[in-house]
Specification:
Layout: H1 13-16, H2 37-48, E1 53-57, H3 60-63, H4 67-77, E2 81-83, E3 98-101, H5 111-116, E4 119-123, H6 132-135, E5 142-146, E6 158-163, H7 166-173, H8 189-196, H9 213-223, E7 229-232, H10 236-244, E8 253-255, H11 265-275, E9 281-286, H12 287-292, H13 296-302, E10 308-313, H14 318-328, H15 341-347, E11 351-355, H16 358-370, E12 376-381
Parallel strand pairs: 1-2, 1-4, 2-3, 4-5, 5-6, 7-8, 7-9, 9-10, 10-12, 11-12
Helix pairs in contact: 4-7, 9-10, 9-16
Length: 384
Amino acid sequence: MEKPGPVVVELPEDLATQIVPIKPISPTSIPVSIPIMESIQAANTLIRQYERPFVIIGNGVVRQEAVDELQLFIERLQSPVTHSYMAKGVLSKNHPQNFFTFGFNEKDEVLAGLKEADLLIVIGFDFVEKLPKEWNTEKTPILHIDTLPAEIDEYYPVEAELVGDIKQTLRVFNQLDIPAKPWIPSGNLQKQIKQSYHIEEKKIDSNLLPLTIEDILHSIDKLSSEETIVISDVGAHKVSIARTYQPKNANKFIISNGLASMGIALPGSIGAKLACPNDSVICITGDGGALMNFAEIETAKRLGLSFIIIVLNDSTLKIEQEMMNKKFGKSYGVTFTNPDFVQLATSFGIKGEQANSLVEFENIMKRALKNADEIVLIDVLLKS
């Protein structure tokens, strides 16, 4: 199904009170469709005509469970690849063609590489994450591969499109003689991205205070398993997480993009744990986002769930502060005095601890991951 998500069914009050026969409606299966072979061959011919393709991956690849087919396609094409926030994990951190995430408003390093490309192969990308005018300023030709036809856009000039099930489309595509198009963007771009986004862990004094978001993310990477699910809330930390954190598998990192709903992390963690009860779930939220939905801890406790809540505590609505400073030269009403998150956790009947150094944080994380039958909140003091 494309695109899956929550559905609201609203009934008039008089109808909602009526008694109806209990007769469930049988679901109707949707047939799998793929483009005709002539279209797939035409797309392959199109790739042959260009020398510097750049692959852009969206979350449609994850939704369609097409990661294996995508990886084979990339392996044969050998061109550079970038992915959206919600498609993180489709390539490993050390994959030679991984040019990491795009979709930032500023300092989006991979845009320099996209400008050098002469063809963009866009697979399963949703415009809600980032409009083409933000990343295709050169109006580079597009090969569109998705479950839905391409949206008409001046900055999305489609040369060819393959509309249908992404998994099956790539499976058929991979049976063709895909031309290898290896090329490297200028300026050692991949290394530049790794440095700019703090993707590689640096040795630091583990007793330093206060911590940075990057310290926390590298620790999570070290301590978590391939099945660990990480959920990011919305705020300034979301950009850091989208850049720095590299999940070990696709669909193990959940981030709200597009509408970007602040406060998603706590209720999202409840949903993730209900869906995947045997997997560890780590909720990363800012102090502002946590306070928006902190009452949901009662729900999680009542349901008998267990996961880890990391509150990044800087007593500031930082993204609002940055936007105000940029637009007005000053900010107002964005700093506040937090509650004691440890005591607040205790009041809900869950365990709360404060980490004042990287050593403390990692020790708490190890205990929390080992004792997987409780909710643990870690209050982390960050550099403001």
